[in-house]
Specification:
Distance between the termini: 26 Å
Number of domains: 1
Largest sheet: 3 strands, parallel
Shape: globular
Structural class: alpha/beta
CATH superfamily: P-loop containing nucleotide triphosphate hydrolases
Number of strands: 7
Strand content: 15-25%
Helix content: 40-55%
Length: 194
């Protein structure tokens, strides 16, 4: 789903709109630059031997001037002090939760309106999962970001979502408010162990 939205796959039918604009045929680069869509990959997308700061600069690779990426990185450091403390350290020394924060933050450098978030809890220790969802909730609530998420942890994903879509073998099985889907016995039986 996220690959189709971002332009990593060929779309055989249907269309993708951001507001009134049809972005279906746009490349991933165009979607990031002009449609304000950023994709936060599933796992381990940091550049391990580059510093935290350099990873953030990479998030601005499409900006007209390197100075713009540096200013955007400073805004990230102002928001997330933990990354600021580690700015000169290689990304490979970060904890799983810190790496996930860096991946999210790198996407924020381009100031997107829409974040495509692929499996934010994958590979994380339970203590970091809540922290990642708190960061995403802050971006949604306080910065007005639209978040489209694919999440294998059905309970966590539905708790977070305004609207949830439950797919079974790639087909839409159920859709509705996240809280309603959490309370649905069929969804519970299929995905929540209930």
């Amino acid at each position: 789903v996220l690959h189709s939205i971002f332009g990593f796959t060929n779309i055989m039918g249907g269309s993708i709109h951001v507001g009134a604009n049809d972005v279906t045929a746009q490349s991933a680069t165009q979607k990031l630059q002009t449609a304000g869509i950023a994709y936060i990959l599933q796992d381990n997308s940091v550049f391990p031997d580059m510093s935290v700061e350099e990873n953030l600069w990479m998030g601005g690779f499409l900006m007209n001037k390197p100075a713009e990426a540096r200013r955007a990185a400073e805004r990230v450091f102002d928001k997330y002090s933990r990354l600021a403390e580690r700015r000169k350290q290689p990304a490979k020394v970060l904890s799983g939760g810190e790496r996930r924060l860096l991946e999210i933050s790198r996407a924020l450098v381009m100031e997107p309106d829409i974040l495509l978030v692929d499996e934010p809890s994958i590979g994380l220790e339970p203590r970091f999962i809540d922290a990642v969802f708190e960061i995403l909730a802050d971006l949604q609530t306080n910065e007005g970001k639209t978040i489209i998420m694919v999440e294998q942890n059905a309970k966590k994903g539905l708790e977070f979502s305004d609207i949830g879509y439950v797919l079974v073998s790639g087909q839409l099985a159920k859709a509705g408010p996240g809280q309603e889907l959490l309370e649905d016995p069929e969804v519970g039986r299929l995905f929540l162990g209930g």
